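Open question from group meeting: does this chain pack into something compact, or does most of it stay loose? Before anyone orders reagents, we agreed to write out a predicted structure and look at it together. Recording both the input and the output here so the notebook holds the full record.
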Amino acid sequence: MRPARDAELENEVYENESFRGQDLSGLRTTHCTFSACDFTLALLNASEHLGSDFANSIFESANLFGAHFAECRLVGATFAGATLTGLGVGGGDWSYVLLRGHDLAGLDLQHLRLREADLSETNLTDADLRGADLTRARLHNATLAGADLRDAIVEGVNLAAARISQAHLDLAGAVQLARSLGAVMD
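Structure tokens returned:
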């Protein structure tokens, strides 16, 4: 079945499909696979996704206003120019994702896997990143003012490249920040 506005899909598989410019508003997916699919300019506002896989998919200039992803896999997905206002994320694996320059202020990103994600120039002000895996994520010029990074994995992250004022850090995060700033831990 080809997805359409307000469709409900379960266990469907799509590979290298183009949904370019389609109105998929209100789409609900459960355990579906969209491998290397193109959602450029698609309307996915108010869509809901549970345990679905969007690995290596392209969401360039797509509208994801109010979309929610719970325990989804978006490894290698690209969101250049996408509208992410009101985005909801409940865990999952977003490793290698391109979110450069997006406004993710205040989002709950707890326990989200963001390994090697490009978060450069992203606004993460007041974002909840507790328990998130940020291993080797790129945070160049990202704003983390007031962000909660307690229990986050920040191995290999250059925290000095980000703006971190008033961020909440646990001991491991504070040590990583100190190392990023050139401190030697004795």
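Observations to bring back to the group:
Helices lie at 171-180.
The mean pLDDT is 93.
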